[in-house]
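so my prof wants the structure for this chain in the C-alpha cells format not the other one, which i didnt know existed until like an hour ago. anyway here's the sequence
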Amino acid sequence: MAHPTEHDRTPNASEEPAPYSASAPLPSTTGRVRTHHLQQAKDQGRKFTMLTCYDASTATVFDTVGIDVLLVGDSAAGVVYGYRNSLPVTVEELLPLAGAVARTARRALVMADLPFGSYQGSPEQAYATAVRFMKEAQVAAVKLEGGAQMAPQIQRLVAGGIPVCAHIGFTPQHEHALGGYRVQGRGADAEQVLADAHAVQDAGAFAVLLEMVPADLAAQITHELNVPTIGIGAGTGTDAQVLVWQDAFGLTSGRLPHFVKQYADLSTVLTQAARAYAADVHTGVFPGPEHTF
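here's what i got, hopefully its the right format
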C-alpha cells in the first residue's frame, strides 16, 4: 500500500488550515482540490478560479484565499525569465517553478504547462515530458496546447494516468503559425474551434482552456462539452476564468491584453517601496537602532 506523501496529505487537527473563500464551490478547508471537484463545479453550475503562479510566496497567498487551480504556465517565459514570448522556455526552467508551487499549495490543484517542443513530436515524447512534471515537480495535472492534432498525445497521457487540460483557440506557442496574437474562431473558423473542443474532450482531457475566443462561441462550447471550460479572453460563459497574475494585479509593465482586468497596481506599490528603501540607506536612516544587534 502506498504511503501518503506531503503533496497528498490532509492537514491534521493541530495544523492551521488555510482560510477558505466563502464563494468557492470546491472542497472544504482541509481538502485538496482534485479534477473531479472541477467537474462537480461544472455539473452544479458553479464557477471556479484559476491563476498563474511561479513561486512559493505567491502560491501561499493564492492558496490561502481559495484560488482553486494554480497554473505554472509557460507564461513564466516572459514574467520570470524575460523572454519575448513563450517559445524559448524549457522543461528544465519550468520544473523548479512547478515544484515550488506544488510543494507550497495545500489546497489548490497545481497544473503545469508542457513547454513548446517538449510534446508535439509524438505521444511518447509527450508522456516522457509529462512524467517528469508529475514525478519531479509533483504537480497534479499538465496542460498542452492544440486541438484535434493533439488527440493522440492526450490519449497517451490519460492512459498513463496523467490528467490533461487541453488549450485551444489562440495558442501562444503557435504565435508565428497563427500570424500573431489574434482572436480565433470568428466566422467560418468557429467550426474548427468547436471541432477541436470536442476532439480533446473525446481524447480524455478533463478540462478545456479557451483563449481569445468570441464569447458566444465559448458559451456554445461550454454548453456542448461535458467537461469544464476555462476562459481567458473568452467571455463570461465559461466554467472558470484564468489570468496571468502579474497582469491582473498590476505588476506587468506596458500594454496589457484587452481581456485583462487589473485588480491592483502592485508596480506602483513596489516602486514606492524600493525608492523608500534606497532613500533610507543613502541617508543612513536604515538600519536604525531597532534593526541593530
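also thought this was worth mentioning. The chain has a mean pLDDT of 91.
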